[in-house]
Amino acid sequence: MNRIYALLATTLFMSLATQLPAEQFSKLTGPVNVRPVQSGKQINVPYITWGGDVTTFFANGGLETEPGSIYAQEGLDLKLTPGDDFVQQVKDYMSGKSPFLRGTFRMLGQASGVLGQDPRTKPVVILQLSWSGGDHIVARKGLRTLNDLKRDGKKVRIACQQGGPHVGLLYDALAAAKLSNQDVEIVFVDDLTGPNGAAEKFRSDKSIDACCVITPDMIGLTGGLDSEGSGAEGTVQGAHVLVSTQNMSRSIADVYAVRSDWYKANRETVEKFVAGYLKATPEVTKLRDDFEKTQRMSREYRQLLTTSQQIFGEDVLPTLEVDAHGLLLDCRFVGLPGQVAFFNQQGNLSGFGPKMTAALDLATNWGYADGRRGFDPSGFDYRKIASRAGLPYVEPKTIVEGEGLGEFLDDDLDTRTIVSFTISFEPNQTDFSVDRYGAEFDRALQSASTFGGAAVVIRGHSDPTKTLVQAIKAGLGKGIIRRTGQQGNYRYFLNSQGGARELDLSQTGEMVRLIKSGAFEGASDSPLQTMQAALNLSLARAEQVKQAIVKHAEQEGVSVNLSQLQPVGAGISDPVISKPSNMAEARQNMRVEFRIVKVNPEELSETDFDF
């Protein structure tokens, strides 16, 4: 039900005022002296309020390593400490109180200017815990897709917690629509949730057009993921989810990192930590999934959720069955295959390299850091990690076959579209080369990767001119259409039993309905057959574009889940210009449109596509 960084909400970035631009992270931490990591048997490891950290509790047996626990069996002695105050986490990390950092990849990026100043504290990212499925951008009624975030005149105003996990979500949402923070007005708030959070800002200030929120706040504003606020029971009239990590499922990556100097001196200890977490992951996942299926809570699962409730607090997790269990439901564990895909798979557009590039782009472009200081991957041998954890090693696939996601109908495409873009082509064109369309193909592949819980609908379109000409000619010949006026300014009237009524050729839906009814059939040129041929041609072009994208992905070594790429033919049903007056206007209708479309998460299986 909820992704909650609740304690982060009350302590992180409290000094930042609403509507100020991003502030350099070094100003938040102040001067920090780098010291060696404190020696001693017990190691301090921070945790944050998120479902992925419940697995850490499970592996450790609680806040301190319990005898018989997974980590105890690895010979580790860990003390798990609160880490929701990320600024304090960074201070402790730099001063040697803990060699670990726990946050999202983008949070590491925002702190990169501080973390990379000394080679001893350069982060080595050792573990990806999960992807988020419980963060959302909620918008008012006028915003339907991410394309709507750019408008003429007054900028869209978006409330977002300064420096928190949603900064990365917002960055990805803007990037998907080819926008930047300069195209919108970001209104930064102090807290993730609560009275100083983005949801309350959205609720109290009608000039705020959208807000970045966690699931409980999303439900409070909209009534649910697929609902629209009615104004009743605390919801906001017209509020709805613009985009969610249910669909943008590879936006927020939760990770652990350690200091470079400590990693070099304690590599085996780090491997034990990673192996223990990965060993615990399928056990926790099974406990969660068994309860979700049967609604019967095992004693072991109840104990784990009770431990989590005690650690996070009953104000954060009031109930076990809804809140604590829901915290885990929003967590998409990546497991061992996900480590291989994230750290080692070169073609993974949501892997370590691309995510670090994006994190540093955000940090420098939005003002959190004054230079690009990156991180290092662990360089683990995951066959060795698998053996230590007692897990089978499976190499993730690059090109994943799939059965598709069912039919996408025109009457629900608009309501399910998250963002869209198009390419144009010439009449009778059948070749879609990388030389001409490479940038669009790359954008489609990146969208498929970031929006792992969505479909990329490749929608072919045809120009309606020939079909309209044949329909008018047939109608005039049969006497069911009457024409008045002069060339270039004709008016058409449809004769029917109820009398003549004017026929508007620009109303494509009405013209398609009349043609489908067979009203114009009988002439030598059948508009119905021409319309069907246009539909077949549009689907064929969509299929050709898909195959060109797949070929491009294979040549570039880019990972892609083929079940996400769904070619659809729209025919003449949705033209840009309904009644073209020249060839230039007709060409605007000859296009292939890419739409990122919401699907039921259960329709997408990531069993073999763990990144």
UniProtKB/TrEMBL annotation:
Coiled-coil ranges per UniProt: none
Keywords linked to the UniProt accession: Signal
Source species, domain of life: Bacteria
InterPro entries: OmpA-like_sf
Signal peptide segment: 1-22
Protein name, per record: NMT1/THI5 like protein
Organism: Posidoniimonas corsicana
Lineage, highest ranks first: Bacteria, Pseudomonadati, Planctomycetota, Planctomycetia, Pirellulales
